[in-house]
Write a structure and sequence with these properties.
9 helices; 0% strand; mainly alpha
Length: 240
């Protein structure tokens, strides 16, 4: 059986729902990282707060609090990376045992399809999880770089390198947070992709719900309103 014949086992509704899932994931990621002028996303606001953090770190002595914060961020990325790896292992094990999955699905949706179809559906979930895992691992490494740069900031705030070095740490921290957020979004859409096991319509619905939840959290949430009460001092500037 060639690939054309295999792909023919999916309906146009299946392909449309899958396209909606991928398009929603790509578009919301782009919009969050490139918000419209005058309407910053939570991630965009937090980037400037990270710059403010590093400026305050220069003035703080000792800097134990800052080191603890970076350590907590690294622990969070390590946890999600481990969870993603476990989920990927479970998915791979499930691909090797699609007969049981097909039996359960047939009982739930009263529909019989070839094992290849279930394997592809699980593979889509695994692709999202793999993307999330790689993003988490990179974020963990970048937070490590950030901690090194923070340690390299001179203790004397009057030193010519103090604020520029802190600005370097801020930008690395922002890059790490961006990678972590991308991993989180991939995890959300991996969960949405699980709905495909129940059919194309549930997949489309899950994609739209996930899209709406992410959009609300970034552009219309209560936390965003709180952040805007006293906006960050930094506005993309890296040296003060």
């Amino acid at each position: 059986m060639n690939w054309t014949t295999r792909l023919a086992q999916f309906s146009l509704l299946d392909l449309a729902a899958l396209s909606l899932l991928v398009a929603s994931w790509l578009w919301i990621s782009w919009r969050i990282e490139n918000p419209p002028a005058g309407r910053p996303s939570v991630s965009w606001l937090m980037a400037d707060f990270r710059r403010d953090w590093m400026k305050r770190m220069v003035e703080r002595d000792p800097r134990i609090f800052d080191a603890q914060l970076v350590g907590n961020l690294r622990q969070g990325t390590a946890f999600f990376a481990s969870a993603s790896m476990i989920a990927i292992g479970g998915g791979l094990a499930l691909i090797g045992n699609t007969e049981q999955l097909a039996g359960i699905a047939q009982d739930l949706i009263q529909n019989s399809v070839p094992a290849f179809v279930w394997e592809v559906k699980i593979l889509v979930v695994l692709l999202f999880l793999s993307n999330a895992f790689l993003k988490y691992v990179w974020a963990h490494r970048l937070f490590g770089y950030c901690s090194v740069l923070m340690a390299a900031v001179p203790n004397d705030r009057g030193d010519a390198l103090a604020y520029p070095r802190a600005a370097q740490a801020a930008e690395i921290s922002i890059t790490a947070a961006r990678s972590f957020n991308r991993g989180m979004r991939a995890t959300y859409f991996a969960l949405a992709a699980v709905a495909w096991l129940a059919g194309a319509v549930p997949l489309a619905g899950a994609a739209l719900v996930t899209f709406a939840v992410l959009y609300r959290r970034e552009f219309a949430s209560h936390s965003r309103t709180i952040l805007l009460r006293i906006p960050p001092e930094s506005h993309g500037d890296t040296v003060s």
